[in-house]
Design brief:
Layout lengths: L1 H11 L5 H49 L10 H6 L20 E7 L2 E7 L3 H9 L7 E6 L4 E7 L5
Antiparallel strand pairs: 1-2, 2-4, 3-4
Length: 159
């Protein structure tokens, strides 16, 4: 008799209660937070990977620039682009980073040059700088507090 009474109450109950509504909203909120963090992480990784490709393209273009010259003296982003040494995707106005900010290239010494990416937030800056710490050809100096990462490229076996 008690079981029948409980079943009868459940049948006559309409809608959902406040507790069920709050639980559903909490689950939805957790899923949205997880999706947002995943999207941000994926977006950052994609931008950093694209920037790594750009650094490698700049290194290749600079090596081609040096053919017939004794040093990297006079190298700039604009000169590399004007001579067709950079991919067309890398814009002429030097705002070619995945973040839409400036890239600079300048010679520092005969066998080395600097590439700098400006306008990065600290997490992007650290992630990008961290990709090149293992390389034998690149010394990375990251000044991420000012939103800038500088890569100094030196040819292998030279200073």
């Amino acid at each position: 008799m008690m079981m029948t009474n409980t079943i009868e109450k459940l049948r006559t109950r309409k809608g959902i209660g406040l507790l069920e509504l709050m639980l559903a909203l909490a689950i939805i909120a957790v899923l949205i937070i997880m999706a947002t963090r995943y999207y941000q992480s994926t977006s950052r990784n994609q931008k950093v990977a694209e920037a790594v490709t750009q650094v490698n393209a700049l290194i290749a273009a600079s090596s081609n620039w040096k053919i017939g010259r004794s040093a990297f003296t006079g190298i700039t982003y604009a000169k590399l682009y004007a001579q067709g040494l950079l991919p067309k995707e890398m814009k002429t106005d030097t705002t070619a980073t995945p973040w839409g900010t400036k890239i600079s290239v300048a010679s520092t010494a005969g066998n080395s040059f600097d590439m700098s990416f400006e306008g990065l937030d600290s997490a992007d800056c650290e992630a990008l700088a961290g990709r090149f710490t293992e390389s034998a050809n690149i010394t990375t100096t990251a000044t991420c507090a000012s939103g800038k990462v500088v890569f100094t490229y030196s040819e292998k076996g030279t200073t």
